[in-house]
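Still learning folds. Look over my entry:

…
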Amino acid sequence: MQDAQARMKNPNEVENPTVSRKVIIAAVIGGMLEWYDFGAYALFAYVISDQFFPTGNPTVSMLLTFITFAIGFLTRPLGAVVLGIYSDRVGRKSALSLTMILMAVGMGIIAICPTYEHIGILAPIIIVIARLIQGISAGGEIGSALSILVETAPANKRGQFAAWQQVSQTGAFLVAGIIGWGITAFLPREDVALWGWRVAFAFGMLVAPVGFYVRRQIDESPAFLAEREKTVKEHVPFTILLKNSWKPLLIGIGIVMIWTVTSKTASSFMATYAINNLHMALTSPYLGMIVVGVVLLFCPIVGAWSDVVGRRPIMIGAAIAILVFAYPSFWILSAYPNLWVLIGQQFFYAVLMVLYTAPASAALSELFPTAFRSSGIALSYNIAVTIFGGFSAAISTALIGITGDNRAIAYYIMFAAFVSIIALFYAGKILKMK
């Protein structure tokens, strides 16, 4: 606390390596577990659909599974509002600790929930409740995490610091990929369906207390402490946000759109897509997920680059590349559905995700002032994730089912890229974002 208090008069001017390292670790380990939870559900969706949503029709069961996946996103805006306000009034540290508790509860429920065969309709209801809790937790995570990273960073290193939040998603990809591969590689398919998939959720539930402990050890954001000393808030930040910052909110939603659609469609959905639609080996998509995780480790380097050349040029270039190459990449994968083509495609998207999302983390946080930064980030990000990312798997499944074309998954990605390019254009024109 002494380090934070010493910087209150001049926040973001001097870097304290010890404080910075602790904050980065706390943000990364907590965010990693948050996203690991969502990844585990997506990776084992083909098992969950059989055990909790049996309909006799595999396509309908899978749609119900992904709709339940999306339901978890419906409570993200609620978490963004409630936990965003909590973060802006009480502090980033307290909000981050609370999200860890909620995440552990949600994962624990899924890990031990009996199947439809044992308790009937209660099984899918319990899964839905767990997803709602996870959604609230995830809704408050990114606002507080990005806020404390940016507010701890020196002014000329915000891109580098904020990009570490993406490393937390990288950790989720890596851990989910390794555990998913391990479970499917060393267990017979029958055991994976019987109990092996639960190991993935139990792992997250047991590691969550470590994340909670780490987050309790960090200091509060110096910029937040300075803001609290300077003013006594008469209004809830969320009210001010809606009244005065609707343009940054809309632009933030647009910026996040390709971020969330690419992440959910080209990464999490790839396991089900490769197994069910391309009929590839069970272990194939998990190896690709590990590749994605390794590539995303380079986010801080790209974030530091954006501190020098600006956020928008890098992001616009990446979004245009996604728009242009989305369909050809899925055409190649559909024509040649083998392990190396899949890994190559996921590597390609991972590179573009690094180029876009690393600067986007700082860009999103810079749209809003300290007083309601956490609320602004959380709300814009989670509205985009809820509407466009949460239903990406269901939309992709429906597009393929309606058209009968495995390449139709690319259309949604292209649409998202187009919207984000427009948002970046207005970010430069209206908000003078570099």
Observations:
- The CA atoms of residues 70 and 390 lie 4 Å apart.
- The two ends are 34 Å apart (CA to CA).
- The chain has one domain: 10-218+226-426.
- The domain at 10-218+226-426 is CATH 1.20.1250.20 (Growth Hormone; Chain: A;).
